[in-house]
Amino acid sequence: MNKDLLNILANSNKDIDNQQLMDYLSGDLSGETLHEVERSMADNAFLNDAVEGLQNISNKKTVQKYVDELNAALQKSMAKKKQRRLKRRLQETPWAYVAVLLVIVLCVLAYVIIRKVLVTQ
User: Where do the structural domains in the chain lie, given as residue ranges?
Assistant: First the structure.
């Protein structure tokens, strides 16, 4: 089995690993392992849908192309979100410092004014 195809489910769950999935799709499993995979598919609807979708792909060479396209799109989307988050954080931070400083200055000013008013009376 092509090693690149094993990375289809990079974050696979604990019910089935990538090698078992690929062996199941190619028909290389037998006996208890085959039944174990089918039990996992029966218990997990997401896994069952994933296996059905992978079985519908007739040309296994296109699977890697799809995976590469999805990974590239995901990386691009994550990079954009990270940039926006970082940009927003940099823009918000100075205003927070200015606001805290302003509140402290106002509190000190109020204290000084109140002290002067009470001392002069």
Answer: 3-86
